[in-house]
Specification:
By secondary structure, the chain is of the alpha+beta class. Helix content is 23%, strand content 26%. Strands 3-4-2-1-14-13 form a six-stranded mixed β-sheet. A six-stranded mixed β-sheet has the order 5-6-7-8-12-9. Helix 3 runs parallel beside helix 5.
Length: 268
Amino acid sequence: MKVRVLSWNINSVRLRIDSLLSIIKEYRPNVVCLQETKCPNDQYPYEEFHKAGLRNVYSNGIKGYHGVSIATNLEVERVEQKDFCQKKDGRHLSLTVTTKNKPLTINNFYVPAGGDEPDPEINDKFKHKLDFLDEASAWLKSKKNKKDLILLVGDLNIAPHENDVWSHKQLVKIVSHTPVEVRKLEKLRSSYDFIDSIRKFYPYTEKVYSWWSYRSKNWEESNRGRRLDHMWSSPELDKFIKSTSIEKRVRDFERPSDHVPLIADFKF
DNA sequence: ATGGTTGCTTGGCAA
């Protein structure tokens, strides 16, 4: 049994629904995880997913900002959404689906961006980001079970490695690449001994990005990107992974998101 | 060092 998971910070699901439908048609994912849907649950385009063959659709969205969703054509055993930091904003949703072997849980995260100033004392948004990562780490750790199939995907808003950014030197004090954030992300990863499934297929010796700012023309030529989006597999799930990819071409779509989709392929 | 763009909404924030 093959399972394909696609994860994308779509930056408005309503604005880019046609781009998403063409991506679904082309890549045929079994699971679609979105971040920054910017769409309240009662306005979510559920029917568009149904028509595209993804019958089970769940949204954790609020008006205006952030918001996550998961759509799948697999049987859903369980749905969970965790409200970290008591903010009541849509930054997490998880589904447990049925595979040939045993249940697979997909956690979809949208970690707070953290504002501009990398100091929790003077910047509440940065504090929220660090607190969110601490709470998510503790929550995952409390659920840890060696034999479970767990996938964590999403826009984690941190590019941890030197080769996850266009210039380590110029970004080391910029939110998304500061040492304190990198440590918190590593804590999140180690909470479940996750394996970085993108880097498993894209070695650390090469520069790899999933996001290019809207604020520069010729995004491709200047190539000042960051790898903010991630796919992590639990050790048991890692046994079944066949490949991952970063669909960079999507950054060239008409009215693009500033992020591109990630894909992971599993065979159970 | 600064400003650059986009989306949700129509003024200003969040990214």
